[in-house]
Amino acid sequence: MRDRVAASDPGLLRLTAGLRTAGSIALAVAVLALLGTDVTHLVAGALAAMVSTFAIREKQRGQQAITLALGLPVALASMTLAAALHSNVLAGDLVFVALIFCAVYGRRFGDRGTALGLIGFQIYFVSLFVGASVGELPELFRAVAVAFGCGALVRFVLVPETPTGVLERLREAFRARLAQLLSAQHDLLDAGPEEADRALEQVREGTARLHETALLIQGRLEGGTADERVAALVQRRVADAEIAAERLGLSLLRARGAERVDTLAMHLPGAPIPSGGRQPVKDEATETLRRDLEALRVLVLRPVEQAAGPAVAQLRNRLLGYRDEENLPVASPAVQDVFRAVGEAARAVLGLRIALGGARDESDDSPATARSREELDAEDAVLDADEETPTEEATGLRRPTTRAAVQVAVGSTLAIVGGELLSRDRWYWAVLTCWIVFLNTASTGEILVKGYRRLLGTVLGVLAGIVLAGAVGHNTWTAFALVLLFVFAMFYSAPLSYTAVSFFVTAALGLLYTLLHTYSLSVLVLRIEETALGAACGVIAAAFVLPVQTDRRTNELLATVLERLGDVTRSAVDQLSGEPPKELLDEARELDQALADLRAATKPLTHPVTPLRARRETARYVVALLETCAFHARSLAATAELLPTHPSIAADPRLRRAAGRIEHNLEAISAHVGDEHSTAEIETGPSIASLLGPSTPGVPRYGRITDRVLRHLQRLDEGVTGLARPLGVPVKAPEG
């Protein structure tokens, strides 16, 4: 059960966010109730507690404390402005728009600027919601101060969260998700014709979830690890385990009889399993393989702090023995390749346990296990972190924060005008929606999709609010209890579904209106109208004010992915050709992050309701093909880092010549993405292996590039060439 929870919520980040926010509200309401606060100011305190909790995103506790301390005067100043301008509609609207601009512009100053801007805007909104006036300011100040104090108590004492603790939980989540992926791979091996496609889809989902957790760990390493060398070691071992698990899944596909299965099958959603109609093979070798997959899962789930013990050590030794050719069982080459992949995965698990500080009992080591330990120790000894190269930032209106601030200010102005035409008292709902659809979005398409999801969640929330308001009536504490439940659900579901967030927010607001004695069916219907208006104003502003079209945004991100892919490939090939060692996994993670950004930006193109079906399929295919290329590039980087220590890998200068075509094709595709009139063409030709030229007689095997490296390069070459057709890049006619 612990592993299931860890896997479903990596780092318990969603659970912590929900508990902390709901706990802050509950504590603030309890304290204010003991002080004899009326219901209106109880609601103000509850909302202020929620704002003071979710606005702060910094990872270090000291930085969080400073931001929280600065947030209180910002909140009080914002509430004072709202109360002072309560009766002056025009001035209040102008100040609100200016505050919105400053809040969005403040994102350029990092997490603290974002938090303070969010606090200022949201507290102004809270003041409008409770109808704050100058005469009520002392009572409101007390409610806000209590809310911030309760938020601090919950954050730092009752539900503490440290970077080290989060990183530790993320590591556990990685192990749990790795075990789940191994279970899915076991099911894939056993799946019959009817279950094959579903089993492959589960492997795809497990692979994506494992990759997601690896990226989360990457983002927390700097703050959660005091020693940079330890952070680099954990990063490497996590990457090794991820690559080994994906390689194992690909080998299992081949073992099902798909001799030329492409890695694309692991990354393209909905693609059928190659040779999926075949019955699973049942012989002695595959029966052994089934047991070994389960044994590998046992090794993964073994708590890091526990020593292996004789039985587990025996499992580990047997699996690591598959890395030696002589230990492979008699089977087809495809099945033998799965056993090799199991051995490499066991080695990755061993390295991960060592990097996480696992108990180190070497008394039962076999020669194969001892050799793997020596290799891991040798790799750890050559860790060398590179300095990051600063990137040039955009200025003026080209800076994303400035552009977004102008857009949201224009959209909010439209929302204020239209909202006041709908209602003189509830117009701020349109402004809030306009503000929210701009959060964490960067293109018109993303804003359109987010606005649609918010409207859908609001409609469903209104229906729920009607039912709940009738059931609760004016029972204050029952209503507050349900509000707490909805707030927890809102933050727990936030990373999963924005529609669910909007639903829980609207349902909670229906209860708050009941507490404020302002509930009516017309109020909830008005909320739908204001939400639709705000979403429309946001889309209009995004489309006509300094617009960033979805195509332009995706092209920019696609160019970045291609550039990062070229960097990783070039660095790996250089090192495999004899250049000095580099920290290649940092470059690989930059590629992963760029690909994650592209995947998020293409969501409007791949959304189920999009009318452009052909365009949707093209976007899905291109992203899947890039994920395939990224897998092979990561694998090349991981192999290149083994070069100084692995006895079967040695530098081969011929490799640089063989990989030149891949680099040229990446540059040609990048040129076409940047300029559709580009005349650059990609090149095709013989296989990568043939480009190496004849080998020297008498050269031992360790002096050649391994078959694995050639296979990754060949697949990378095929993947890059495959991008030409959907992106419309011309292919150079073969010479002669």
TrEMBL record:
Residues 376-391 have a biased composition (Acidic residues). Residues 359-398 are annotated as: Disordered. It is a multi-pass membrane protein. Signal peptide: none annotated. The keyword Amino-acid biosynthesis does not apply. Keywords: Cell membrane, Membrane, Transmembrane, Transmembrane helix. The keyword Protein transport does not apply. Its main location: membrane. It comes from the Bacteria. Residues 415-540 form the Integral membrane bound transporter domain. The chain crosses the membrane at residues 12-33, 39-56, 65-83, 89-106, 113-134, 140-159, 404-422, 428-448, 455-471, 477-494, 501-519. InterPro entries: Memb_transporter_dom. It is found in: Cell membrane. Coiled coil: none annotated. Belongs to the YccS/YhfK family. PANTHER family: MULTIDRUG RESISTANCE PROTEIN MDTO, P-HYDROXYBENZOIC ACID EFFLUX PUMP SUBUNIT-RELATED. This is FUSC family protein.
